[in-house]
Amino acid sequence: MDRRSFVSLAAVGGGAVFVAGLPGCANLGGTDKTASANFYFVQLSDIHWGYKGPDNPDAAVTLGKAVATVNALDVQPDFIVFTGDLTHTTDDQAERRRRMTEFKRIVADLKVKDVRFMPGEHDASLDRGAAFIEHFGATHYTFNHRGVHFVVLDNVSDPGAKIGDEQLTWLAADLAKLDSAAPIVVLTHRPLFDLAPKWDWATRDGAKALEILMPFQNVTVFYGHIHQEHHHLTGHIAHHSAKSLIFPLPAPGSQEKRTPLPWDSAMPYKGLGFREVNANAQTATYGIREFAVVRA
Amino acid sequence: MSSLSRRAALQRFGAMIVAAGTTGLVAKGPRAQQQAGRIIEIEARRFRYTPNEIVVKRGEVVTLAFRALDFPHGFSLPDLNIRADLIPGQVVPVRIQPMHSGRFAFLCDNFCGEHHEEMSGTLIVET
Ligand SMILES: [Cu+2]
């Protein structure tokens, strides 16, 4: 299957919808149709709370505006995920904790209370996740929602961008309990494949995770880190990165340095945003709809 | 360490240098493996390599001798499929023999702080 037939683009309500999944596979895995159903969740990523700089002079209010936009969605999502870099890194451990506390206070205003967090390298790499765990809990875990198995992978607590053998063993053991047709969604911060290694857009042992996931027929990965939307297939596994809430970065490998795209005061928040993911557990398909920080 | 004794220390490394490479960009002939070649000293500190431009001739055997000052930085040269951890207090030798000319980006791939993303450089291979 080539990428074009995989990602079909349709305009719905003014937003782009990527229908990602396996067309033609209408009935997968579970036969209990009452247990699994359509639902949607929201993905926000790369907030970098605490960042101060010219690439986002509105950094102190961008997260609050995004929270208000999510709260204004007509139908509220079943849950919300933050795929890492909640805070901008700092060497000062007290300041790191202050940033995490402030971040939590702001997102506490979300109407939806089922919120899942995972770290990015800015949150976790300098202290191997210690402050993150204090504020947000485990850095890798699983949960089930309406027939979909979600796996949160931590590829940032190791400063060398490794998942590590221990977590890989845990992943394999977790998946061993599943039917090979079960719908699986992986949430993580860095790309699990080599998107642009010269920009550190990779996971050093990501290939091992993909090898463990490969026998499963319905796997989709949602991640962050690269501050832009990007869609890619490794075999039958789809990978979708999300926009950030701080500053956009250039297309993977498109220039020598990965310098942020400059802030445009005529179009504030350009290139920033969050997404809805509309899941259909029966077909293991995921419709993606992108939103701007502020509703037009 | 005087520059002379440092040089001597670096020469000793020549015999145990590792260098990596599974791509056609790096030759692994027995003769090349025994040679350290020209030694280029590189200092790694947050958030910069000095020098951050390395110029070599195509096919030349070169040993990059890294000294990390303040953090276990990384050195990754993805186009040559080479990486190393730069342990502070050690000279970490990385032998390369690039077989293709061009500009190849290298970077720190161990997250080292606020400007980690800027810690990078270029290997320039001339014909
Ligand atoms: Cu570094």
Report on this structure:
- The complex is a heterodimer of chains A (296) and B (127).
- By secondary structure, chain A is of the alpha/beta class.
- Chain A has one domain (3-292): Purple Acid Phosphatase, chain A, domain 2.
- Helices cover 21% and strands 24% of the residues of chain A.
- Chain A contains seven helices and 13 strands.
- Chain A has helices at residues 3-6, 59-71, 93-107, 121-124, 130-136, 165-175, 206-213, and strands at residues 8-12, 15-20, 38-44, 79-83, 115-118, 141-145, 148-152, 183-187, 218-223, 230-234, 237-241, 274-280, 285-291.
- In chain A, strands 1-2-13-12-3-4-5 form a seven-stranded mixed β-sheet. A six-stranded mixed β-sheet of chain A has the order 6-7-8-9-11-10, with no helix packed on it.
- In chain A, helix 6 (165-175) packs parallel to helix 7 (206-213).
- Chain B is mainly beta and 127 residues long.
- Chain B has a single domain (3-126), classed as Cupredoxins -  blue copper proteins (Immunoglobulin-like), CATH 2.60.40.
- Chain B has two helices and nine strands; from the N terminus they run ααβββββββββ.
- In chain B, strands 2-1-4-7 form a four-stranded mixed β-sheet, covered by helices on one side.
- In chain B, strand 1 and strand 2 (48-50) form a beta hairpin.
- Chain B is globular.
- Chain B starts with a helix and ends with a strand.
- In chain B, 38% of the residues are buried.
- At the A-B interface, loops of A face strand 8 of B.
- Bound molecules: copper (II) ion.
- Copper (II) ion (CU) is lined by residues 71, 73, 108, 110, 112, 116, 119 of chain B.
